[in-house]
């Protein structure tokens, strides 16, 4: 197989692409390519990964212009004419090279009240949530988020409105809104309403298109809009 | 006004605007369909001003229908303009909303002028 020509972002917000020649292998992933560059060609390259099997959500990068989880992205699927361009995630500050600063991304989960707040203690009985109840199925559809930031990086509204909480944080809030054990529903609905929250979503659906876990944050955000509207019409908001 | 009260107002206000936007969109979908169906039906024998006026003059049904149409446009368009003004031009805050309320009144005035133009 001919070698792969890989353009890799070097620097911070200011910087340039550096080209490397990387040998091709069968079933090679984009993360394999980046790892080869760092181990064999230039040990100063900064990038982030942990699990390598699509669980931890730390290796997302922009590959040929599209945000992807690099550990589960095969070079065969994304290389164009034997070339790759690898950059850090968009819509986030760059710490160095391929490492995006995720602080704002996760701070927004906190701002969206993405933490479970129960009202019961361990002395009370378990809450019983039938697996086939509508609420449980809505939660199941949205719960497998690994926090990789691909949706956030792909979202036009995040690019235009830096205050916007973004698809992942709102998706998380939606799963808690559906959780009957949670005791902070109204506080959360207030936190996710408005111009920085669910109402800013234009349903472009880039998040749903790009999510590596096949979650549809757009649907979760639509659910939040309905929940917020219902609360407002009941005068609770 | 405290920051908390301001943000509570923003949350309620934005939510109301969203509800108004959805409700006016539903109304517009209906109005546009009735308008287009009437247009296609009416144009078949050739279109003339006299024919239109004969249908609309003194007809309170059409007056009510097109007044509703204008109302839906007046609500829907300015709310719809808020997002591109904020996101593409970075124009947010009170000045944007004041200008859009003015724009809404302009839409209502010109719209109702047209409605009364074919009714009276």
Task: Provide structural commentary.
The complex is a heterodimer of chains A (237) and B (120). Chain A has 237 residues and is α+β, with helices and mostly antiparallel strands. Chain A has helices spanning 30-41, 75-78, 103-111, 134-142, 150-154, 156-160, 167-177, 185-192, 206-210, 217-233; strands at 4-11, 15-22, 60-63, 66-69, 83-87, 94-96, 99-100. In chain A, the strands form 2 sheets. Chain A has a 5-stranded mixed beta sheet with strand order 2-1-5-3-4. In chain A, helix 4 (134-142) packs antiparallel against helix 7 (167-177), helix 7 (167-177) packs antiparallel against helix 8 (185-192) and helix 7 crosses helix 10 (217-233). The longest helix of chain A is centred in the C-terminal third of the chain and has 17 residues, at 217-233. Chain A starts with a strand and ends with a helix. Chain B is mainly alpha-helical and 120 residues long. In chain B, 87% of the residues lie in helices and 0% in strands. The longest helix of chain B has 40 residues, at 3-42. Chain B starts with a helix and ends with a helix. The mean pLDDT of chain B is 92.
Helix-strand layout with pairing:
The complex is a heterodimer of chains A (237) and B (120).
Chain A: E1 4-11, E2 15-22, H1 30-41, E3 60-63, E4 66-69, H2 75-78, E5 83-87, E6 94-96, E7 99-100, H3 103-111, H4 134-142, H5 150-154, H6 156-160, H7 167-177, H8 185-192, H9 206-210, H10 217-233
Parallel strand pairs in A: 1-5
Antiparallel strand pairs in A: 1-2, 3-4, 3-5, 6-7
Chain B: H1 3-42, H2 49-56, H3 60-89, H4 94-119
Helix pairs in contact in B: 1-3, 3-4
